[in-house]
Amino acid sequence: MILTNKFRAEYNYENIERDFDIYFVKGTTGLYNTNILDIPTAEYKALAVQHSFGKEALVLFQKGKEYNLNFSRKIKEQYPNVAVEKINVLDKAERNRVFYYNDRLLAQLLMNSMKTPKGELFSYNNLTGKLYYGDSTSPIRDKSTKEIYMFRFLQISLKPGMYLTLDVKTFRKNSYSKQGSFYIIDAKTGAFRKKLKSDKVDLKDTFAQGSYKNSHNTVEFLCYENPEKFSRSKLGIMNKFLEDVKLKLSDYLTLEYDSYDAADKTEIKKSKKTEISVKEFGKMLSEKDVTISDYCKDKQSESMLDSIVRILESDYNIHPLIDTTSESGYNIRIIYGEEYYENNKLPDPHKDDNNGLIVQHIIVENHSEEKLKNMVKKVVQELIIKGDIYSRKLSIYDWTQLKTDKTWSFVTREKIEGYTYPDSHFEYNMMTVTPTGDLNFETFNDIEPTESTDKERIMLMYSEYNKENSRVCNSVEGLVFSDINNIHAIVRTCEFTIPDIYKLNMALKETNPNTAVRKENLINMINAFSSEYPRYADETNNLIAIIREQQPVLTKYEIRRFMNMQKKYAIDLNQYMRDKYGVWMHPRIQSLKNDEYLMSNIVNICCFKKDFVLEEGEEVYYYAGEKSLRRSGVSRACIIRKIISEKKMEFKDLLPLLSVEFVRNGQYTVVPFPFKYLREYIKISKNI
């Protein structure tokens, strides 16, 4: 089964109509930057508000309260151009008009009505039509003053198509802004909310959305190291949210995964040779001169230069030239970060016009030996890719292993500055690859007339695909084709795959490494296991001997160490204790052999179809997950991409192009790697 963030909602409309009044607010201008929607929550105790579009919103009240009518009257008094309409939830036509597909905005409105329990400050907040979840680390305090200067939340929302999304939002202490939306910590309730006109608060004591001093906040997608870290990861917070919906909204709303049948899921087999060794990279690099230039000339950069030379010589068998430039070779330059040149008002080497030179920068910093080796490997890869672009020939990948006799084209587009919607114009960049790996690049736009019918068709199809998918917040990342009359689009959807987070959460709680187990009980369980599985007698006798020497009570963390969960007997013992006694030591999340948690949903490259048929062409979906699961967790979501073809689906021939490991530091690339070449070509052509 493939689980994703796509949900379907079931509603009890009778209960909703019984308990709530819902108003539809529509203005002639945008509502968000006014206090129109703050009035009901602050003055009339509205349960929730939810934006629909810029000029439209929804307000939820408890049924039959007198202040509901007062709200409607006051809005009309203060804002004569704003219309307020009470919605009959039992009327399907009205629901379709204001709530959209699967009554999405009704679900969001109900979700927004959930309140933070007492004693759980900043657990979640409804900040004027947006639902934010946090945790104990959300308020970040100054170490000296202990004052809160920043909040980090996850905004939880249902996007068109019923995709549940979790976006990191940061609010910082306001230090300079005088316009925009401001937020305060309510002095009476302690809630974090939007500032009203009536709040007499100095602007320096308010918060504004944005990072603090250019700090960048991220939240790990999934952490399964222990229950606490899981609860702070995106999927942990998603699990908490779904539990809250069941607990608080079960009379009105049920959210269920819109899963896909695993029978349609095909795992793309890895190519026989997807990873290139450093020696092979060295051989590619040795075809040209390699130079290293120190542009910093300080002790740190000199030490870094020595380390890079040593790594190139020992690992790559490359002997670089120092402090010189090769017009036809590869040039590595050690420089400072961009901020250094900006702060000191110095020319920035990042922005140099290299006049056809193959150049790769490396920023001077203190690095461990392992990290520096990884950085050097990335620099080597980037140099080879740039060299391929200049030589118009693939060397980093053997294109002939695709066994294709077709010439493939890859296309991206960018907006041209100076033009705005609806008069937007675009520049198109195209790379073609012949069956022997020869490259050709071309740039064209939709302003200058062209006599090429092929280019006209590319521009038309890009626009058509984009128009079709932007309605549901999807974006076209590029086109690919071998036949101009069968252009494929690669579409980044709002959908991402997830494991079974409920089972993950339960397993982490039950195997919490801090949980205590009595030594006597543990020995009894091991003896029972040994009696049923005498083939493990030696291992269990040794384990019991170790445990007898310990304190009367042991933690599960200690027991794991003694058992050594890499051993077959320990795996079977762990399962035996779980099945017979309900006591287990290790959740074994990384093991995909028994995929209890559906972790395979975020590993490897998988392709599948959905259960509908297009009138023309075909659609397939794929995701490129982790190459292997790390011990602690997964940093990024595994986005599902959709491939649309006009006629016959040919994209499957290119799936091996996802399994290369020279684009994302050892992980699979999420789009075929020629798009990496296109991005680099654009940078080189614009001297970025």
The end-to-end distance, rounded to whole angstroms, is: 44 Å
Mean pLDDT: 88
* Overall SS class: alpha+beta
Instruction: Indicate the overall shape.
Output: globular
Gyration radius (Cα, Å) is: 29 Å
Strand content: 15-25%
Uncertain residue segments: none
Number of DSSP E strands: 32
Q: How much helical structure, as a percent, in the residues?
A: 25-40%
Count of helices?
18
Largest sheet: 10 strands, antiparallel
Question: Helix and strand layout, with pairings?
Answer:
Blueprint: E1 3-4, E2 7-11, H1 13-19, E3 20-26, H2 38-43, E4 48-53, E5 56-62, H3 66-78, E6 83-87, H4 92-99, H5 104-112, E7 124-126, E8 131-133, E9 139-141, E10 148-159, E11 163-173, E12 183-185, E13 192-194, E14 207-209, E15 222-223, H6 227-232, H7 234-249, E16 253-257, E17 266-267, H8 278-285, E18 290-294, H9 299-315, E19 321-322, E20 330-335, H10 338-343, E21 358-363, H11 369-391, E22 408-415, E23 426-433, E24 439-445, H12 453-470, E25 475-481, E26 488-498, H13 501-510, E27 516-518, H14 519-532, H15 537-548, E28 553-555, H16 556-563, H17 568-581, E29 605-608, E30 618-624, E31 633-634, E32 638-645, H18 674-685
Parallel strand pairs: 18-19, 18-20, 20-21
Antiparallel strand pairs: 1-26, 2-16, 3-5, 3-6, 4-5, 7-8, 8-10, 9-10, 10-11, 11-14, 12-13, 15-31, 17-29, 22-23, 22-25, 23-24, 25-26, 26-32, 27-28, 29-30, 30-32
Give an account of the 3D structure.
The chain has 688 residues and is an alpha+beta fold. 30% of the residues lie in helices and 25% in strands. The protein contains 18 helices and 32 strands. Strands 1, 17, 22, 23, 24, 25, 26, 29, 30 and 32 form a 10-stranded antiparallel beta sheet that branches. Strands 7, 8, 9, 10, 11 and 14 form a 6-stranded antiparallel beta sheet that branches. Strands 4-5-3-6 form a 4-stranded antiparallel beta sheet, with helices on both faces. α9 links the parallel β18 (290-294) and β19. The protein is globular, with a radius of gyration of 29 Å. 33% of the residues are buried.
